[in-house]
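step=encode ok
step=design start
structure_in=
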C-alpha cells in the first residue's frame, strides 16, 4: 500500500529510533514537499487542561505527536461536520479546525473523549525522506481505522493495526522488543 493523507504508518518491530519504536503514525499531509503526521499511541502523563489555559478543567489525554515542534498543540477528531476549518483525512477522521469551537463542543458534551485526540509536537519528513525509510522497510503502510486511532488503549493500537493487516504482519505484533533477550 502506498502512503498518503489519512493512511497510518506502523513502525517495523525492530526500528531502532526511540522516537518511533512500536508506533502508529497517522499521516495528515503527504505531498512533494514532505509529510506530517502524529504518533497516535504515545500517551503523555498530563491532560489538555494542564497545558492550555483556555482548556482549564478539561481532562482529556494528550499524546506525543512526534519530535518536531514539541511545544505545538494539534488535534484530530471525528466531528468534521461540526468543526469549522477541519481537514478531512479519511474514514471519518479530521485534522484541526477552530480550537475555540472544539473547546466549546467538548464542554457541551458534543465531542467525547473517544472522538478527539490532542498531540504535543508532530512527526515530519522532508521531501523523499519517508520514501527512503519505506524502501529500508522501516515502516508498513495501512489504512487508518478510526476505532484503533481513537482507542483509549494506546498500547494496543500498533499491535492491533498489524494484526488487522493479516498474513505475516499479524505475527509481527508479538515479536519481542529485543530478540536478544528472548
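sequence_out=
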Amino acid at each position: 500500500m502506498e502512503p498518503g493523507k489519512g493512511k497510518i504508518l506502523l513502525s517495523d518491530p525492530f526500528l531502532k529510533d526511540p522516537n518511533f519504536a512500536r508506533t502508529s503514525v497517522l499521516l495528515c499531509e503527504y505531498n512533494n514537499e514532505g509529510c506530517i503526521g502524529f504518533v497516535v499511541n504515545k500517551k503523555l502523563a498530563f491532560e489538555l487542561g494542564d497545558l492550555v489555559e483556555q482548556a482549564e478543567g478539561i481532562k482529556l489525554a494528550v499524546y506525543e505527536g512526534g519530535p518536531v515542534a514539541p511545544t505545538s498543540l494539534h488535534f484530530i477528531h471525528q466531528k468534521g461536520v461540526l468543526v469549522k476549518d477541519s481537514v478531512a483525512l479519511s474514514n471519518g477522521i479530521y485534522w484541526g479546525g477552530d480550537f475555540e469551537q472544539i473547546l466549546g463542543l467538548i464542554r457541551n458534551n458534543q465531542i467525547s473523549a473517544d472522538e478527539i485526540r490532542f498531540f504535543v509536537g508532530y512527526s515530519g519528513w522532508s521531501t523523499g525522506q519517508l520514501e527512503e525509510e519505506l524502501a529500508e522497510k522501516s515502516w508498513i503502510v495501512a489504512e487508518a481505522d478510526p476505532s484503533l486511532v481513537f482507542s483509549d488503549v494506546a498500547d494496543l493500537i500498533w499491535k492491533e493495526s498489524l494484526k488487522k493487516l493479516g498474513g505475516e504482519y499479524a505475527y509481527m505484533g508479538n515479536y519481542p522488543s529485543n530478540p536478544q533477550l528472548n
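step=design ok
step=annotate ok -> The first strand starts at residue 7 and ends at 11.
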